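Collaboration report, partner site 2.

Our partner group contributed sequences for two proteins of shared interest, and the home lab folded both. The records are reproduced in the order in which they were received, starting with the first partner submission.
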Amino acid sequence: MRGKINGILKRANEADELCAWGLRALIKHHPNDFGSTDLSGVADARKMRAEEQQQAQNGREAAKLYARWEHLDDGERERLLTLAEEGKDSPAFAEQLMTNLSYRGREQQDAVLLLASSLESGGRDGQLSSSDARLYKALSGSLATATGPDSSIGSPGGVTAAWTDKLISTARDGNGLPRQHPGAIGGGAATLKDLTDLMAADVGDKAVYDPNKDSKEKSSPWKKDEGDPVYSEAFLTEVGDTIREWETDNDDAYDGVMKNWQGTQEDPMKGLLNAMSRNPSASTHYFDPDTTDNLKYFLEDREWPGGEVESKMPDETQYTSARAELGLALESAATGRVPGSPMHPVPVHHDAAETAIFERVMGEYTEALHKDQSAVPVSMRLPMADMIADYGSDVHQILGKKMDGPTDFNQLEIDRGDLTRIIRATAEDPNAYKMIHASQSVVTSEGLNHFPADSFRKEDPELRAWVKQSASVLGHLDGVRGDVIYDLGQAEKDANAYKRVLNYHIVGGLLTPIPIAGDAIQRSVDAGLNNHLNDQNARVDAETRNNMIRHYDYSEKQMYGMLRRMATERGLSKEELDASPGEYEDHLQSITEQWYQNGMGDADKWMGQ
């Protein structure tokens, strides 16, 4: 009997302990809610606790293996890869890895920074292998988890813990050991870069964005970031504030690289901004001009390492610069989505902070564009175009109407001429132009989809107004495209390469997908875009350069195509479309022709033609 009672008591105590553990798990690091943990009973709690204990054990084992990473045999290396890649998203694993890590005689925070630098450089032989890159990326993932809100050493409750604060301060200040010591950390730009490079997790990603590559290859600035870890807002903000404070208080912060191209690559802000772009909410809060001055600092006040020579660098080097990562971080902040992820369905309403960032970024280059059509930096063209595309309904109003007040959707107050010049500057990247053009094609078709068959058969002032505005928008865009191709031809650049990228099936070839709601809209867009593709092999001769506008009237044909497809979707016959007098033949088509030409002429005026 005593044995039975003891057994009952033992199981009761175990159940109590599991329940207590389960309750702690539910509210762990979530003082105001139950977090994301889901437990349905004691069995779930037992299983989850066992998994947590196993992950903690795996983290300690991984720490021992990472300490010897340069000397591991094949079996040990494979074991470490398995542990690191499978455990990186577990707080238990990440905490134990970080707090038990030892490298070159240093522990924890020092060891993380030393290990990151060693892995990134390829270790003893200086050769970065594919497995080295995987270990580096897994370490980045573990650091993101360890410094996140679900970790006791990270940012529980949205505030960085002492362990995380010490990691950041060590990167900034170093550890005070003499330079000859194998565990010495000097701090400053080099070690801050070690930390932010680890956050970026781009080691081993060699592909550089090339806007003139075949669209089927999907070359993009964010391809290198696919699958990379997402860092917490608290950690990103603390690292950003630390670097800004350090570089502001040090006149010689980037001594040696400040005035040459290496500065654009060795800037510790590069990795931070890359990581920031993967957390849109954090980016929006960090750059919100109504609550911080960070946006002003990056756009106006900061002395960018290598900034004086950046515009003279080859394009491929500009695409790997810190400013390129600023563009992606600002896109994330202004749109609320990760660069490369699908656009928001039209129409989209952005919050006040996103809109404020968008307007401020657009306003950065307006004055310079009056004197220099290419004032938008090479690496900023595609991110700015993606922002413009995400605000497509507002852009449609600005280019299609003479607005006397803010736009209806996001209350934008951007001058039509300024917007046209911004689009012109971004359009030197053909992928950038395609995004804006495709966005307006979707907005136009989405608007047409609201009208019933009778609107195409007899006068409907609202449909006439929409056709007028849409034709004007597409005319503006054709004016921009013609001007870019003309200038490329004048400069004896490869205008054919630009056209080849531009004329690839525009929706299918987009780097960033645009959601289309409904088959009718999809068919209308396709009908408009596929009926007037240019011969990719056509050469740009002198006559074409001098008469570029009349040779690039594609969007007029596109508007006819979208209009016709939507009318036939509504049941109109070919006879009804061609009937004269008739609404479609004598009014909708003539409005398209007139306002398309007006839009092109307006674009020419704003571009100073």
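Second partner submission, folded after the first:
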Amino acid sequence: LFSQMFIGNRKIALQPNIVQDNRLSIRYKSDTVYSDWFTVNNRTQFKQFTYGYDLPCVNTFLQEKTNKNELIAIPLRTNNRKERWQNDVVLQRGGNKEYRLLVISNCRGFSRPINDIELFGYSVDNLGKGSEVNEPIVVDLQQKSNKGSSLNVYPNPTDNILSISFDGFEDEQNVEAVDNDVVLLDILGRTVKKFQIRANETISVDTKDLTEGLYFVQVKGFYSTSNQPIIIKR
């Protein structure tokens, strides 16, 4: 179950499957909930609240208004213990462009957005505990997966060795001798691997001990953070 989403302190209206975008191809799409368009600046906070079981068939994505073919995955934290979760995400370097959120369900049945939702007596204001990590997930909207970006991961999907190529951050100069922290996060935001990388370096990571699913590679610098989603197949 999802409650109302927030961008900053503003509620974002959600509507079910009323837009048919022929340019947007989503495999096995059954139910999609769209938000209103909103502006993302250099640092915009996004919150969503969830309750219930782990839902691998539900995903949240960000879509840019002038490039609807590209979807940016937003990590979703929930679990199998019926706990209420608050998901905190920082959208970074949005360039004051317009984006919207898509909640895409491949589950059987139908999605139903409900205004002013209350779950077992919990209103949207007090629903959820904080995430289990000390800081929110950062999604850098300027980092693209194409060649030439500062962070590249390949092959993607992978079933064995993952290569991580890092060219450094544009706003951080003369740091080739500095080790940057790299973490591999699962879909719940938990760290499953941790290592270091320098600018203009490529490292290899063995993924054979990880289960199939969606993960995120995150590189942290002095001032910037870069994320790339990866899929591990078995």
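Feedback sent to the partner group on the second submission included the following. The chain has two domains: 5-136, 143-232. The chain has no helices and 18 strands.
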